[in-house]
Amino acid sequence: MSGEADRPARPELAAAVRLSLRTLAQDAPGRSVEVRVPPFAAVQCVEGLRHTRGTPPNVVETDPRTWLELATGRLEWTDAVREGRVAASGTRADLSHWLPIVRL
Questions:
Q1: Where does the Bacterial SCP orthologue domain start and stop, copy by copy (predicted)?
Q2: Is the whole model's pTM more than 0.85, yes or no?
Q3: For residues 49 and 69, what is the distance between their CA atoms, to the nearest angstrom?
Q4: Cα gap 20→104, rounded to integer Å
Q5: How far apart are CA 101 and CA 49, in angstroms?
Q6: Would you say the C-alpha torsion 1, 3, 12, 63 has a positive or negative sign?
Q7: Which member of 28, 32, 54, 72 lies 3.0 to 4.6 Å from 48 by CB, making a disulfide possible if both were Cys?
């Protein structure tokens, strides 16, 4: 994707992020990892110890474009982490098992 013509409008971007995060939460139910894609959404997923207050021990955070590239298989998890496009902390914060959500 390069240029403004390739960028979705904000409402479509928000909808795609929210839908894909809900799908991740369904595919990997649980509350041990919080996945954040600001400013649009955050979900808790992956089985394990449940977090209840404060910052969870397992957090994944990225921007909307990177998240959608991961969710659609256009970007590999290891590449995104290595390139600093995803911040992943905690022993359960590796989402590679559940990605991509859908391949385009």
A1: 10-101
A2: yes
A3: 28
A4: 13
A5: 24
A6: positive
A7: 32
